[in-house]
Every structure is written in C-alpha cells, then in structure tokens.
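User: I'm curious what two different proteins look like when written out as structure tokens. Can you demonstrate?

Assistant: Sure. I'll show them one after the other, since each token string lines up with its own sequence. Here's the first protein:
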Amino acid sequence: MRKTKERRERVAALRADYRSELAEGLERFFEPRRTVCPWCASDRLRRRLRSTDHLQQKPGVFVLDQCCSCGHVFQNPRLNAQGLEFYYRDCYDGLGHATMARLASTPLANRLYRTRARAMLPHGSPALWLDVGTGHGHFCAVARRIHPHTEFHGLDRGEGVLRAGREGRIARAYRGSFTELSQRLAGRYDAVSMYHYLEHTPAPRRELAAAHRTLRVGGHLLIEAPDPQSLSARLLGRWWGPWLQPQHLHLPPLANLCEELGEQGFTVVSVDRREPHVPTDLTSAAANLLKAALPPDDLPWRPRRPGPLSRWLRRAMLLQTAPNLVVLFALDLLLAPLIRRTRLSNAYRVIARRN
C-alpha cells in the first residue's frame, strides 16, 4: 500500500512537466521522413507497419518501413535526439526502474544471460570485457560466474550503469555515447558485447566502427538483435514484442549485418539463429493487445488521473486476464525448443573477430 501511494505521488509530481512538453506537440520529436534506405540508399521502400508505444503507452504513432532491395527495417520518420530522450524517460530509470530491475532478475533473464556468456567460451577467455548497453549490469553479474577471470565493464547512456558500478555488478562504469567514448577506450578490450543494443542506435554503422576501435586485434564482438525476417514478426504483426516502438530505430537482417562487419574489418566466426530466441512472443503480443484494450493507467503523460470507475474496471480486467497470460507464458517456454529450430525464432547472434 505504501509503495502504491509513493508511486501515485511521483506520478502526480511528474504530470505537470509532461503536460507542458506535450502541449508543444509531437512533431518536434521527429526527423524528416527518409525517401531512401539508410542502409543501402535504395528508394524502393514499403511500409512494414504502424504502431503505438505499447511498452509505456506514451502518445504518438510510429512507422516502420522496409527496404525492398536489402530488407532493412527502420523507423521512418525517425525520432531525433529530443524525441529519444522523451520516449526513454521513465522507462529504464526513474519511474520505470523498479519494473525493469524485476524483469532483469527473473529466471528467464538469467538463463538468457548464461547462454550469452557461454557463447564466448569457444573463442577464448577475455581479460577485459565491455558490455555496451549494459542497463543495470545484470548480464555482467551472471557472466562473471562463467568467466571468473574476466573483468567486466559496462557502458550505457542511462543512470542505471552508475548504479551497477556502485552495487558491484561491473568493475567500471561508463555513462555516455559509445561512439564518443570509444576514442578514450581504443584498443583496450578483448571482448565487446552488444546484446539487444544495436537496434536502439540512430547510426548502427558508427557503433560497429566504435567496437572495432575499442577492441584489441583478435578481440571479439558479440551481437544479439531481433530478427526482422522472423516468421513470428509476420504472424503477429504490430503486436510482435521485438518491434518495440518507438525505441527500436533499425532492424538489419542477419546477412546485412554480417556483410557490414566484413566491411568494417571483422571476420564473422559464429552465427546462431536458435539459442538467442527469447521465448515471450505469445505473452508479449497478448500483453500489448491487453494494454490497448484496458482503461488507462495512472501515468504522468496522461492529462489527469483516471477516475474510480476506470481504475476499478482496469483491476477487474487484469484479474480476469492474468491466468491467460500465465498460460501463454508457459506455452512460450514449452514450445521454445521447437521454435528455436524454425524461422519462428525471433533473434540472432553474431560473433566476429577483429582483424
């Protein structure tokens, strides 16, 4: 009850600032619409989908286009720096910190962290490992058990990376832009990981160049990303969780990424479309649908707190649908071994060695 009251007070305190920002309109958060693909410069574009912000339910409509030449999927028009700040705020830090911390420490998350760490085992034992987009450093804390002789550092734009350093999940914390900080970190690391990070960045090629700059010769870059060619993406449409609008700006197909790594001075040594699958497709799609159907929650970007009737209806619908979400989650886990062997798998992993 106390936590509920504290949250309600925090929401009320934030509401005035959000109201004044939204009064200026959403158009200022977007760059001009592109007429050519940002990956291959082809003008053969088609609309892949339109989506809203399913995760936070902040206002706005977001469009993903797909290049008919190379298959690259990208947000168009894309959020600018001001828009990214607005839509990330109170998601991983601030108001959303407690929720994200719980999700990052679940048994499923820990299993994913372990498989990511073990993927490096055939390629040696790195002395220094930089996890880019580390969030609150939970991957590093788990990976340290599998690589006990490795020192893990973390880099992120959010304040969570500093908390990860204070709480001992990483040995060193860097807060800021990877492309800018890579100048300071040149040639320092034996391994650099980007787990579900690259799709969040405005310029993926620059991030790959930063990784090349940061790695020692012979060091390894580990990337996991959503697979836009997944059959699940087609079947579930805009409700597919990994679209994650408006945060995901670029979703390159696996072949595009491997080709670019070669151009950047890497040799791809491992590709995997099975193990990186995150078994939550049915659950996340159902949750996205449910959020769209529910009465509004008390969120600071809404003009006012919902009334008593709206809050009662929301609680009643959540209680009624919760068992169905539990069943879908169990089904996701049960089907995962089979899904991983098919094109329904929703993610891929690439490991590349710096030449």
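Here's a second, unrelated protein for contrast:
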Amino acid sequence: MASAQAVSKLYKPVRELVLGATDEASGSDFGLPSHQREVAEWIDKVAKRDIGSVEGLKDLDTQLTPKTYIVDNYFTAADVAVYGALHPVFSELQPAQYYSLPALTRYFDHIQNYPSVRKSADALSPSFSLVPIDIENAPKLERKADPPKEKKKKTTATEASAAPPADSGKASAAAGPPSESSAPAESSKGQKKEKKDKKEKKEAGEGGDKGKKKGGESAKAAADDSGEPVPSMIDMRVGHIVEVAKHPDADSLYVEQIDFGEETGPRTVVSGLVNYIPIEQMRDRYLVGICNLKPANMRGVKSFAMVLAATSKDGKEGGVELIEPPPNSKPGDRVYFEGPEFENATPLPQLNPKKKIFETIQPGFTTLETREAAWINPATKSIHRIRTANGVCVAPNFVGASLS
C-alpha cells in the first residue's frame, strides 16, 4: 500500500503520531483504492517538509475552504500527517493570525480533536499537546451570494434597423422566414434542448427530490442555497433496505436498494460498511438517509443517497453503526433538526457539491449522552436533536460519536 509505505518516510514524531492514530492492518485509514495515491502524496509532502511553512498557510487555507478533510470527504492518515506538520506553527499563532485562516483553523481544530488523533497525541505528550483555539470570539465570515447572471440584451427593432448590413445572403436569411437550409439547425437545437431537459428530469428523479412522494405530497418549492450553510438545507428521510449485496468490484462496499417512500421506487445506494456491519444486520434495516447529495459513481455503481452512520469516539476501530429512526417509522418520513429555525424549513432539492454545504455542517454531527443523534452549532453550542415527528433518532450503542 503506497500510503502506508509513505508513512515510513515521515520524521519520527509525526510518524509515531500517524501510526498511533491509524489502523495500518485494516488499511481503512489509508483511503479507498481510488484515493490511496492522493493520500500518499500528501504524506510525502509532509515528509519533505513542504507542509507547515508560514508562507504556505494561505494556499492550504484556500484548498481547505470547501473541504472537511484533506482527501475527498473522509478522515485518512493524510489528515494526521498534515496536522502533525501544522502543530508547531499553530502553537505559535495568535488569535488574530489564525482568524485570518478560517478554513485552515477549522480544519486544524477538527483534526486535533478527532478521537483517534487525540488519543495518539496524548500518548506522545507534550509533542502534540492540545492547541487552544478561541473559536467563540472568531469574527463571523460573510458568505456572499453568487452574483446574478447578466441577461442577454434583446435587440430592439430600432437598433436592428440601425445596425450595418452584413452580406446580402445573411441579411435575407435574418429578415425572412426560416429557409429550408436553416430549419435543420433549428431542429438540432431543439433536439439538444429536449435531450438536456430529459437528462435533468431523470437526474432529479433519481438523486434529487422528484415530483411527489407516496401519499400524494407535492414537492415543496426549492430552497435558496445562497446564504450561510445551515442543517435544514440537508434532505434527510427514513429509508428501508429492501435488498443488499456486496459491491461486485469493491470488497469494502455494499450496494443497497433503499425505499425512501418515492413513487419512482427504491434508490441504489453504495456504502462502505462491509468491514463494520455484517450483511445479515443490513437486511431489512430501517435507517436515516441523506437524499439530496449529487449522485456519485462508486467503483462503477452510481449511488443516489448516503446512509447516516455513527463512528465511535475511539475511531473506526471502535466500531461503526447505523443511525436508527424511532420505532414505527415508515419509508419517506421526514427527518429534521429540532429548533424553530430548522423544523419547518425546506431542504434544497440537491446540494451543490461546489458549495460543500454538507461538509461544512457535518463536523457538528454527534451523539449525546443519551445516544440521541444531534447537531451542535459550533458558534452557539446550541444542541439540535435529529428527529422525526414520532421521536428522536439514535445510535444503538455510541456516545460522543461522529456522524457521516
């Protein structure tokens, strides 16, 4: 494994930190096969001391602005190595300095508090002692809305008559009705538009919030994603696994058919749970699914949702389990966050992957002492439990787990 080999090149303190925070035997913390090369490249950058210079912090801040983790959307050994390289720098920064690097500061604080990283760091104390980050008093970031697109100016009759004439052939074609030679071009444009419309409708039906759900409930009007990311933008629903099998080309992945109460039938969903939940325990399970992520190809199989799972506070070696909806839940039941600002809000039809809305919200997902699933607002520390109309969703066994 290339990324595991790269760890051996790290300088001793960071190498020990990485080895203590990851499970080299299972390889789960060294990335999916498609990501292992990128994980290795980041570790190699740390080994060459290309990470951690004050000059490079701004560039790293920019790279991390839309991301929760350094590679794709899950924790890997690359995050441990990068944290280890950044630690001596952040230990010297004053609040005004790290406030100027909001994405990098968020990332550093998240990784230093990641359970397996904290456990390894404490064992190596004081080399990687906890760096106090004053998030409470951080200046609020302004998230600007996308600028409105300029509408193409229509040419008035007066402007048209004032325009200089082109060659006679072109003038004739513009002034008169479409000739036989221009008809195919117009027809081609119409066919392309029709194909595009069909494709968008198909993707909306499979990966977005199509038409109607069971019971004839009409889809709500699209919400606006131009403001600051909030949890209610995420479309969560109760799902029921009606079929599950191992991915034909990936030993660590399941391919499930999950009923989310849609007239279009079950969605195909790919999840990396083979090493954590036996297939017998996946069959006929009720779960919470995130239904407005953009469909993604997972080793040749397109996935149209994501199951919400809890990872032990001790990391993946401590176990992973599905978040369970309350008893008597039905496929398609709405799952939402408690709080007047969230309970009646309409989720987005589809999350724009460029805006990283889920990735921005996800670090606040956790399970409480009661094992209830919740989102904790990082700014106000207010707790918003994840629930349906029938009750709160829970992790069967985990307290203080991270949810993803």
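A detail about the second structure: Residues 101 and 131 are 15 Å apart (CA to CA).
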